[in-house]
Design brief:
Blueprint: E1 12-16, H1 20-32, E2 36-40, H2 43-52, E3 57-61, H3 69-79, E4 85-89, H4 94-102, E5 107-110, H5 115-129, E6 135-140, H6 145-159, E7 163-170, H7 178-192, E8 195-201, H8 211-223, E9 227-231, H9 238-250, E10 256-260, E11 273-276, H10 281-289, H11 292-295, H12 303-314, E12 322-330, H13 347-353
Parallel strand pairs: 1-2, 1-3, 3-4, 4-5, 6-7, 6-9, 7-8, 9-10
Antiparallel strand pairs: 10-12, 11-12
Length: about 350
């Protein structure tokens, strides 16, 4: 099979495979999905081509004439450190997989392949390397829940160019006038750079299924999120637990689902991922300051308390501040280690966002 002609913006996959049938299958599957392919049965020829030709991703068998796929991986990495590389084999062992991933393979596929598995793996490897935009949905029972739990993480997503939406299921009427809390929620979302969807479920009486699932499902269908943040089940607030359970149902097709900490979380809250938020902490504080009817009466919204919380979790990674997440589901690349490039928000900016 000769290399397929391709346009300048078309991704080109180098397929290194000495089995004619397997090579034909891989090239056809990729070409039918919009990729250009160049086929090599000799790994030395593939390396030579890498040195002179444009390649978006390297797809290689492990058992090759002259050198192994692992050796090809090592040499290709020296030529192109950021090149996405996927290995495939019909004779996988656990040790082979560990060695491949430790040496920089983006993924490791077991033959026989299906079209869906092959194409989705190539898509994911390319997206991971080029920092593809995510669609993020952050779900909270009440106004200020999301800002407290993952406000700084959302700033990081926004700064990366991700599409971020906050879904707040109630108007928070038990904590004050609904119209005031709605206005505050819009201010806070604007500071974070997120879109806002406000539901109308009854505060303190959010059901575990029924309308709660329906409201979240509607948002999931509209946004098609790749990452969802929601409440933890380890929480003494009944609305938070209901939202967590409803999110499990409504977000069942979302590849990445995480639970954040709230002030009413129990000691059973067990995070396994910590997002560094040093550069975003000021914007989180500014967003929470937008809830003026709440900060004067809720001690957990005090700035020193919020900072102490993020400082505590920051000790688990090399960061001064971090937001903790329980991993509910992680079927794709984990939530990125966001380090926003926007400077910390200034007092003047805060005053502009949150008028007196």
């Amino acid at each position: 099979m000769t290399p397929m002609a391709h346009s300048e913006d078309q991704a080109t996959v180098f397929v290194v495979e000495d089995d004619a049938d397997a090579a034909r299958f891989a090239c056809r599957a990729l070409e039918n999905s919009g990729y250009a392919t160049s086929l090599f049965s000799d790994p030395d020829a593939a390396l030579a081509a890498l040195d002179r030709s444009r390649c978006s991703l390297l797809l290689s068998d492990v058992r090759l004439p002259g050198m192994t796929g692992l050796e090809l991986l090592s040499q290709a990495r020296q030529l192109h450190p950021s090149l996405p590389i996927v290995l495939m084999t019909a004779f996988a062992t656990l040790n082979d997989t560990i060695v491949a991933l430790r040496n920089g393979a983006d993924d490791y596929l077991l033959k026989p392949l299906t079209v869906d598995v092959l194409v989705s793996t190539v898509n994911a490897a390319l997206d991971s390397r080029r920092g593809a935009q995510h669609r993020v949905l952050a779900i909270g029972a009440h106004p200020d829940d999301v800002e407290i739990g993952v406000g700084a993480t959302l700033v990081g997503h926004v700064e990366r160019g991700d599409d971020v939406t906050i879904l707040t299921l109630t108007r928070g009427e038990s904590g004050g006038l609904a119209v005031e809390r709605e206005t505050e929620a819009h201010r806070a979302a604007k500071i974070l750079g997120a879109k806002l969807i406000l539901g109308g479920l009854p505060d303190t009486r959010v059901p575990m299924n029924g309308p709660t699932v329906a409201l979240i499902e509607e948002a999931v269908q509209r946004i098609a999120p790749t990452i969802v943040y929601t409440h933890s089940s380890h929480d003494v607030h009944q609305d938070h637990r209901s939202v967590h359970q409803a999110s499990l149902v409504a977000c069942r097709s979302v590849p990445q689902l995480y639970s954040y900490q709230s002030p009413s979380a129990t000691v059973d809250f067990a995070p396994r991922r910590f997002v560094p938020v040093d550069q975003a902490i000021d914007r989180k504080l500014a967003a929470i300051a937008a809830y003026r009817t709440q900060v004067t009466k809720c001690s957990y919204l005090a700035e020193d308390f919020l900072l102490a919380t993020t400082r505590y979790w920051g000790r688990f990674i090399q960061a001064e501040h971090a937001e903790p997440l329980e991993i509910v589901r992680e079927l794709a690349q984990p939530v990125p280690d966001y380090r926003p490039v926007r400077p910390s928000i200034s007092p003047k900016e805060i005053d502009q966002h949150v008028p007196s």
